[in-house]
Amino acid sequence: MSHTPKLVTIFGGSGFVGRYIARRMAKEGWRVRVAVRRPNEAIFVKTYGTVGQVEPVLANIRNDASVQAACEGADAVVNCVGTFDKGGRNDFEAVHVSGAERVARMAKAAGASQLVHISAIGADVDAASEYGRTKAAGEALAKKVFPQIVILRPSVVFGVEDNFFNRFAKMASITPIIPLVGGGSRFQPVYVDDVAKAAVVGVLGQAPAGVYELGGPDTETFAALVDRMLACIRRKRLKINVPFFAASLKAKALDLVFAMTMGLFKNTILTADQVQQLRSDNVVAPRAKGFANLGIEPVAMDAVLDSYLYSYRPYGQYAELTESGKNLSA
Could you state, in order of their start, the residue ranges of all structural domains in the chain? Predict the structure, then answer.
């Protein structure tokens, strides 16, 4: 008698965090349905498992019928969809609030036994940023619909495809100055695959329902993290602390251009809401449940950063060889 593997639907399963969850669930022997807006751009997920084990499907988190179809037959559902876009159709309200509630509702209707929701540290109804407030609102609605939900709140996530260390390393490779907004704010960077491990624990039903805040073993200020990155890529750059009022003015101007161009100009530089986020620390709360409660030992930054930031060094992958050669000639 054949045994049909269980099925997990991962919304946003081709994104930065989602792809790592998809890969790990495939290794667990599950069938993986990667629900995304553009399946043709997610073909690479097929390589995570055997033929037909991992499949990208079309899904729009703003549409009931689309989400319902993606959840059909799923034993577990994971929602990795998030946005930093305050405007447009896929704004905070549509993705973080309505989208979170919709996924939870359809997962419940489909009979899924587990729901894992990826949120973020800083999710709070009283947060200064709209990002944090909508994250909290989405959590509350999803929990109301699906009480046994497992909510994961990571700090800033790092890894090969991240938009944190990569962004500043790229900046450092082309400019002598790095402007910092909130250089004194503290972060607790978490490795993307550790977040994936936590999600797998939730999918497998090995974690009690509740909120888990995920942070790595190192807590450092924004400025210290940039220093760590600079040391990794073998570059010296001048860091300039930008006052919050000046950053707010610049961000509001960029947001205005975005609004005036009706979205033709994408403000990927700095938004007013991001400035609000940078005013607060992004670390695990003292008594919050976290990796220890999930049986996971988080990886330190030093174990990972060199593996992908080396490409930003003056001589790229040949940096150490070149440096050794210089020492010999000296």
Answer: 7-159+189-216+283-298
